[in-house]
Amino acid sequence: MAGNAECKVLYHKAKDMVELEVGGTSLRFEACNFFMMNEMMRKAAAKLIMQTELRVLERNDEDFSLRPSH
Known about the structure:
With about 70 residues, the chain is of the alpha+beta class. It has one domain (about 5-70). About 30% of the residues lie in helices and about 40% in strands. The chain contains one helix and five strands, in the order E-E-E-H-E-E. The protein has a three-stranded antiparallel beta sheet with strand order 1-2-3. The chain has a two-stranded antiparallel sheet with strand order 4-5. The longest helix is centred in the middle third of the chain and has 22 residues, at about 30-50. The two termini are about 25 Å apart. Residues about 60 and about 65-70 have low confidence and may be disordered.
């Protein structure tokens, strides 16, 4: 995400849809497809960490920060 773009994940129970809002962009997924995408992103992030030796150093409720390990 560029800059301080806000990120939200909303669940629409009546439609069983997940809406991912990043900055001014909104993506909608059927819930099962959102979970498949989440797993693909998790695996891609794990590969990126191994390839670039990045480590997650800090996490709070709103933000994940990746920083190079020393």
